[in-house]
Design a protein that fits this description.
It is a single chain. The protein has 100 residues and is mainly alpha-helical. The protein has a single domain (10-91), classed as Winged helix-like DNA-binding domain superfamily/Winged helix DNA-binding domain (Arc Repressor Mutant, subunit A). It has four helices and three strands. The protein has helices at 10-23, 27-39, 49-56, 60-72, and strands at residues 44-46, 76-79, 88-91. A three-stranded antiparallel beta sheet has the order 1-3-2. Helix 1 runs antiparallel to helix 2 (27-39) and helix 2 (27-39) crosses helix 4. The radius of gyration is 14 Å and the shape is globular. The N and C termini lie far apart (38 Å).
């Protein structure tokens, strides 16, 4: 078994966690953000609400609410190409400076 390692921006733990958990009272949103981060490649990932619920230990409804909160906060974009397609998520990292 290979241990996975993830590199998080310091902002995620130092600021975003406190903002989502303490200020917004949305611990579920922080858990969902971390789960999406862990599965994203180049900031993109496809995952269902049921998969998010399984990965985070949340109910499916809590995972859905967390996704909506992240979208409202401008931390996530969601797109579906068809009614039965799994949603594709784009993680938004406004604290990072764009590459020139």
């Amino acid at each position: 078994m290979v241990d996975k390692q993830y590199a998080l921006d310091a902002y995620v733990l130092d600021t975003l966690m406190r903002d989502l958990v303490g200020h917004d009272r949305r611990t579920s949103a922080f858990l969902v953000y971390l789960s999406l981060f862990a599965s994203a490649e180049s900031g993109l990932t496809r995952v269902s609400h049921a998969q998010l619920a399984e990965r985070t230990g949340l109910s499916k409804r809590s995972a859905q609410d967390a996704v909506l909160h992240l979208i409202d906060r401008g931390l996530l974009r969601a797109e579906k190409t068809g009614a039965t397609d799994v949603t594709r998520y784009k993680l938004i990292t406004p604290w990072r400076k764009p590459a020139h």
